[in-house]
Amino acid sequence: LPAVPSALLDALKAAAVEAGLPRLALVGGVVRDLLLHQRHGRPWHGVPALDWVVEGSATHLSEVLLERCGPARVTRVQHHDQFATVALDLDGVPLDLATARQEHYPAPAQNPVVQPGSLAADLVRRDLTINAMALDLISGELIDPHGGQSDLAAGRLQFLHPGSISDDPTRVIRAARYGARLGMNLGFDALKQVRETVAAWPWAWQVGDAPETAPPALASRLRMELERLLDHEPWPVALDLLEAWQAMALVDPGLQRDAE
């Protein structure tokens, strides 16, 4: 990993082995960006934090790590018991340790029901195949159960399963963010899923209804994703993608029909 000391990874791996963890995997955007850098020549911009999924207990791993490395190397430890996560700095590098989880959605756009699970189940929770890869620090294996590497090479955005958008419509906004940032576009199946889901939009809730009556994905999560898009991404490109996908109705149906 560029700019990540090997001593940090060695210490983390040793702690995971001592804790008896079957898997400790680097996940998320850092895996995607590392592959884009190493295989496709994209610039490496670094990462603000390293996200790890722990098969086992993230809390136990942090305790073993602190015992092995001491408080001089392990600092700023924060436990979030509600989410089974631990945030800490190791040798000054921020790490987020999350216990592997699985989830299901009781209804479209509702908050998911989450419980402990495996790394494979945790990857299924994610939005796109390019974000559902992992590097297992213990075995050294690149884990890619959903074809993320081939989608990266093809410049293709694909969702993980046919119900991905109905579960969480804000995944369309995230796809536009990544499409604008990485120069990628929806694959055929993903585009079909977006258009079919949006055609059934917005289920029992309408734009203009009282905000407190909206399901969570249509209220706080939608606003959060739009703020990220407008604050951190090439937003004119992202909005063009949403319009081309006929997905502006997620924000307001009038925008999709507005030629200006």
Question: What can you tell me about this protein's structure?
Answer:
This protein has helices spanning 6-18, 29-40, 58-69, 119-124, 148-154, 164-167, 170-182, 188-199, 220-232, 235-244, 253-257, and strands at residues 23-27, 50-55, 74-80, 85-90, 93-99, 101-104, 113-116, 134-136, 142-143, 156-157, 185-186. The chain is of the alpha+beta class and 260 residues long. β3 and β4 (85-90) form a beta hairpin. α1 crosses α3, α2 crosses α5 (148-154) and α7 runs parallel beside α9 (220-232). The chain is globular. The model has no long low-confidence stretch (mean pLDDT 91).
**3D shape:** globular
Q: Provide the structure class.
A: alpha+beta
Tell how many strands the DSSP assignment holds: 11
Profile the largest sheet.
7 strands, mixed
Strand line-up of the largest beta sheet: 3-4-5-2-1-8-9
Number of helices: 11
Low-confidence region ranges: none
Distance from N terminus to C terminus (CA atoms, Å) equals 45 Å
Calculate Rg over CA atoms.
20 Å
Summarize the amount of helix as a percent range: 40-55%
The arrangement of helices and strands along the chain is: HEHEHEEEEEHEEHEHHEHHHH
Task: Write down the oligomeric state.
Answer: single chain
